[in-house]
Amino acid sequence: MGFFNGLVGTLIVRTPLLQIAPSRERRWLSEPNRRRLQEVYDQVPAVSCHCDRLGQCCELTKEEMEADFATMYPLYSIEYFNIVDYVEDHFDAERRDAVLSLTDERPERCPFLTDTGGCSIYPVRPLVCRTYGVLSREAVEETARDARGKVSAQWVASFLFTERHTVCPHTRIQAPEALAAHAKNMVRFNYERELLSLGREAARLDEARAAVFASVSGLKRVTRWTWGGYNVLLRAPLAWLKKHFAGYWRRSTLAD
Ligand code: SF4
Ligand code: SF4
Known about the structure:
- The chain is globular, with a radius of gyration of 18 Å.
- By secondary structure, it is mainly alpha-helical.
- Mean pLDDT is about 90; it is low at about 1-20.
- The chain has a two-stranded antiparallel ribbon with strand order 1-3. The protein has a two-stranded antiparallel sheet with strand order 2-5.
- It has one domain.
- The chain has twelve helices and six strands.
- One iron/sulfur cluster (SF4) binds next to loops.
């Protein structure tokens, strides 16, 4: 899906694919955290799709590429862990290694989009994909109007900015009775705050990686990034990370 990231005119340089070994012997996410994540997802009303080309929103047009949109973004760290566990359980070795080795921060096409326009990680797709096309243009404007004076003006502006870009006229809501609560959650950023908090609890950066990350970025952790960015930080061989992470980070535009 194409989502504006708020940064314009940044040159993205592709990093060569890393050979990153799978880690099937361990789970990235504990069951309690997985359940809490699912509880957040369950609040988003499902949609059915009725456009003429499924998956068109999961790849970028030339114009979107030029305007710095990104697919499957933002991806919260807790969501990354959940997807990695799913990939390790459900993908064959070739496909698994391909997606786990992807380091491009802003691929033109989501790495999980199938040739027939489906989502190969549908049960664990991230929040940003679940909320796409749920609110109509009218619902977005109405939600913002209702929220003015009740939540911060910055939240309303941010909600409007994002949601106006993620309206799809070809979706149908499966559970319309859940829409009002969902709209309120969106404009109050309730889902995001829960995912941030879950991500802090589930942090999986070992000491050596955390040290490299802190020395390069000056940050304690990254909370929202992309599939490729997390792959580099959490899965690249440590020796590679020590040597090349500074360059990767300098070119990165989407870490948060
Ligand atoms: S969200 Fe819209 S564009 Fe994307 S697959 Fe569904 S109907 Fe098609
Ligand atoms: S994760 Fe699935 S729904 Fe989301 S952008 Fe990728 S293919 Fe589309």
